[in-house]
Amino acid sequence: MDTDETRPRIVAGVDGSPSSYAALRWAVRYAGLIGATVDAVAVWELPGLYSWSGPPVDMDVDEEEARDRMTRELTEALGAEAAASVRPLVVQGNPTDVLLRAAEGAECLVVGSRGRGGFARALLGSVSSHVTHHATCPVVIVRPGTA
């Protein structure tokens, strides 16, 4: 993932959940304070790709459509002006692995406390929990309604 090395970089994980949008808004505000850029990273993976189980899936994912959808969601979450300052990245892979790679060399990694998966009552999602233990940069976890 190419980066602009002249400015600090903030990486925000975005999965369409209210928690991830709160994290994205936090990342944009923090980036404004420190003069950083923001990479909004959305990760997609095919069910069953890494295991023996899973429903049959269409392997032809329209990445351009996914990027367009992400751009629309960023505009809805941030407004047009703020969304224009964010670099959207749509990456195929395991969400935890992709976010950890994207955050290498970043000022910080910002994620929501819970994403789309898992149990609704969980205090901390599996991705946010995993990145806190393995990221090479500081990790900020944002709860919905706090940003």
| Sequence stretches where pLDDT stays below 50 over 5 or more residues | 118-123
Strand content: 15-25%
Topology pattern, helix = H, strand = E: EHEHHEHEHE
Class by SSE composition = alpha/beta
Oligomer: single chain
Q: Count of helices?
A: 5
Describe the protein in words.
The protein is of the alpha/beta class. The protein contains five helices and five strands, in the order βαβααβαβαβ. A five-stranded parallel sheet has the order 3-2-1-4-5, with helices on both faces. The longest helix has 17 residues, at 18-34. The two termini are 27 Å apart.
Quick summary of this structure?
This protein is an alpha/beta fold. Helices cover 37% and strands 20% of the residues. The chain contains 5 helices and 5 strands.
SSE topology sketch:
Elements: E1 9-13, H1 18-34, E2 37-44, H2 63-78, H3 80-84, E3 86-92, H4 95-102, E4 108-112, H5 126-134, E5 139-142
Parallel strand pairs: 1-2, 1-4, 2-3, 4-5
List its traits:
single chain, 147 residues, alpha/beta, 5-stranded parallel sheet, 5 helices, 37% helix, 20% strand
